[in-house]
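Table 4 source record.
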Amino acid sequence: MSWWVSRNENLKRLVQLSQEKTQALKKSTVIIGGEKIEVEVVDTPEKREKGLSGRASLDKGKGMLFKFSPDTVVSFWMKGMKFPIDIIWINDERVAKIDEKLPLPDEGKLPKRYPSPGGVDFVLEVPAGYAVEAGIKVKDQITFENI
């Protein structure tokens, strides 16, 4: 009996590893005002739902880029987040809005929702304070590499 349980657990782990591999995130670069940010691109509902939730941190100069159909109205929340972030809302290759230093949600409460400023094409999450530190401003032009 224990052989079967062990073998079954190994098969489950192989399936899980296979799924993780197929869900690996595409890497790309976003340039805002001369600042290069290495990003992971999330472009499916499943990947968008997970986002940065559960991660311990995000290094300076790194981010997560959420890709949407053009002019999509969305809202984000900090569910499952373990560190604060800035959210940079992007429409027509320009910064449309910046939500800075968003705090972690209060334990036991529903996380606050942060709405887009109308329709957006992309949303970029970076470490808290990075937008100000990098001099990123509303209306800045954005260049995407390998999107």
